[in-house]
Amino acid sequence: MSGFKKDFLWGGALAANQIEGAWNEGGKGLSVADVAMFKSNLDINDYAGHNLVTSKMIEDAVKTKDAKDYPKRRGIDFYHRYKEDIALFSEMGFKTLRLSIAWSRLFPTGKEEVPNQKGIDYYKKIFESLKEKNIVPIVTLSHYEMPLQLSIEYNGWVDRKLIDFFVKYSKVCFEEFGSYVKYWLTFNEIDSVSRHPFITAGIVEDQCEHYTLDEAIYQALHHQYVAAAKVTKMCHEMIPESKMGCMLTKLTTYPNTCHPEDVLLSLERNLDNYAHADIQIFGKYPDLYLRKLKNNNIQIKVAPEDDEILLQGRSDYLAFSYYMSRTESADPNKEKSAGNTIMSVKNPYLASTEWGWQIDPVGLRISLIELYDRYQIPLIIVENGLGAVDTLDKNNKIHDHYRINYLRAHIQEMKKAIDMGVDLFGYTSWAPIDSISVSTSQMSKRYGFVYVDQDDFGNGNQQRYKKDSFYWYKKVIETSGDDLA
């Protein structure tokens, strides 16, 4: 077996809105993440409840000047402790760190003509720290943290004006950070607009006065595709030898049974999932996607130049997140299972996490093979991990064998896919240090190799502790995936 290449990018992935905190420091403006509430009594299976955002909720959040009910405002204080945390990542041997730039640190409302210099200076310090540790950054331009004002004023990406705002912001990122960053990503999980419109695209349903929510979602998606293509072309022109990727939530779907209706449903779900990558990699809309919009009476506004823009700004590589697979059934009475902000039919052959996410390592190999066969461009897994309740013992140790078992099984399947011929150039687990959950705004749903002493209500001293998985992953990187024991 050939296994992983010597220059394989091992590392971890983070998002600014889940770790930085300092929501009102350094000239930062409010983002959509800063109004995400933690609802302690909400069922973990109720993703509709977690993602429900109204104009009234936003108005109340803007008036609130603390982080008590808004955990992403405090994060894990990475803003002040980034050197300490990067040193821990370096100790594990990270070759790369995927992170995002908070758009509202550079442009507090998104509309400013001149960027916030304090925000630029902050990220330069981060990139200098990574450079000192020989850690290659992979930077996401938009990771669920767009300026809140763009949602309030334009209902987010429904308005075409957002394209120009995003291009302006991206140009500043390329000018200021291009000497540090070779690998870029446009939008985190661009397909997620349909699952959580506000978090991904700033869409508030009660503001959809002259169009339906579905029309708002597909219009926002179109504007993000065009924006992604524009900044991809710009990145290539401004930063020699740069690589710009697109990112997909890989929601590999199986038929629950061999009943033809179940097979058909799973096929439709997979085609829906692929469409977002198709548009950014092939540079055009799939015919079946366009027909679906027509059949559902969904009309989107497309400018005459958009087809050419999409064609000229195609992605260099495909990044994707993979946590679980799902199944579909035509039988409405089948038992449901939660997972990755979506509900699906429970697979009886798979175990589940404490949050109901079904564990399917083989599904990762299937995903890698399907994606590489379809697109024939380099792939990178930029999110994969296990959310669990970790307990700090009296000796300040966390024995997270369950996380090691999860990651080991998935890395084994990655190796098998590579040996079949898949071009996989990196793996960044989610997340190398505990952070605020994107879906539930919990702290108790932990993914990290490093434990952060903070609970769901912000109690704790934020001290960092190495888990057993810290030492295990260090060994994995040292041996380039050969030693998974």
TrEMBL record:
InterPro entries: GH, GH_1_N_CS, Glyco_hydro_1, Glyco_hydro_1_AS. It comes from the Bacteria. Keywords: Glycosidase, Hydrolase. One of its GO terms (biological process) is carbohydrate catabolic process. The active site is at 383 (nucleophile). GO terms for cellular component: cytosol. GO terms for molecular function: beta-glucosidase activity. Pfam families: Glyco_hydro_1. Belongs to the glycosyl hydrolase 1 family. This is Family 1 glycosylhydrolase. The lineage of its organism: Bacteria, Bacillati, Bacillota, Bacilli, Lactobacillales.
